[in-house]
Amino acid sequence: LAEHGVKVIIVGAAPGGRIRGLLRGKHTVPFTIIEQTSGYTKYPKATQYALPAMKILNRTALGNDVPHRGLHPNAVSWHKLNGTYIIGLENEIHGYDPDRMVSLPMCDLTRLIYDQSKDLPMIKYLFHHRVTGIGQDDNKATGNQGERLQPSADYIVGCDGANSIVRRSLFGTLFPGMIWDEQIAATNAYFGFDQFGYTDSNFILDPEDWFMTAKTTKDGVWRVPYGDATSLKNEQIIGRQPERFKTLSPGHPKPNEYKLISISPYKVHQRLAESMVAGRILFAADTAHLYNPFGGLGLTGGIVDVDSLFECSSGIRHGKANETILL
């Protein structure tokens, strides 16, 4: 990156794109973040920020708000389906660590990032703007938004998710990897798992009726992803949710004994783009790779991606490295 006149476009206003903007926006490179939606969702989606992610967030103004608003999980444990405790790891025994894991729904994080960055002079948000294609030459990268709008910059960073237009513009449908056979339904609900001896994060082991449950907010929302029959269609999976909750959850609750917030059936992908750099186009987070979600690395990996891009571009801008550091 040159010292002056450098512009960067970030496609996608999920946390990965916004955090990159927040990191860079406090320096001297102008960023435009283009998002096809309003930029917000009512669904919690990802919730876990492991130590590598918290180290990065703590270097921004988010370092105070995320731990304050989020939940510090007290432990992770493994159980049999009948609730029998197998083994666990306590978090509290290590005392306070500013970089320890925090749980905060992604929808809350995106709002925090926007509030912290909206008034920074080097960051511009364009909501309800859809990028339909990407082009580039030796001097610039261009994001196509129809015949009239073709914003250009020195670099474009694709942070527009698993179905990325940016990645597809370069690699088509090629996204090497695999889809696991297992069918998963991700739910969010108010239910007192802790009343049955569960810790804040739990893996329940069973050949058929396996699931995970994790407390994600201070007011008691639990994430409960569970396995279901692979032969079922999405509407059948959704229809079976009360039956599955009764089978899986301690106390075998009826629908009036918990509050279901959301349910989303999905398949687990593990994929990696052919390259995370293609000329003046860069990829990060779900645009670049998809993880098995039962480890909390998806959101953490995306945050680490954008921090690495920030460090590389900062080194180039200050003459400490050249553009080959991005390869």
TrEMBL record:
<keyword id="KW-0285">Flavoprotein</keyword>
<keyword id="KW-0520">NAD</keyword>
<keyword id="KW-0274">FAD</keyword>
<dbReference type="GO" id="GO:0071949">
    <property type="term" value="F:FAD binding"/>
</dbReference>
<dbReference type="InterPro" id="IPR036188">
    <property type="entry name" value="FAD/NAD-bd_sf"/>
</dbReference>
<feature type="domain" description="FAD-binding">
    <location>
        <begin position="6"/>
        <end position="325"/>
    </location>
</feature>
<protein>
    <submittedName>
        <fullName>Fad binding domain-containing protein</fullName>
    </submittedName>
</protein>
<dbReference type="InterPro" id="IPR002938">
    <property type="entry name" value="FAD-bd"/>
</dbReference>
<dbReference type="InterPro" id="IPR050631">
    <property type="entry name" value="PheA/TfdB_FAD_monoxygenase"/>
</dbReference>
<keyword id="KW-0560">Oxidoreductase</keyword>
<dbReference type="GO" id="GO:0016491">
    <property type="term" value="F:oxidoreductase activity"/>
</dbReference>
<dbReference type="Pfam" id="PF01494">
    <property type="entry name" value="FAD_binding_3"/>
</dbReference>
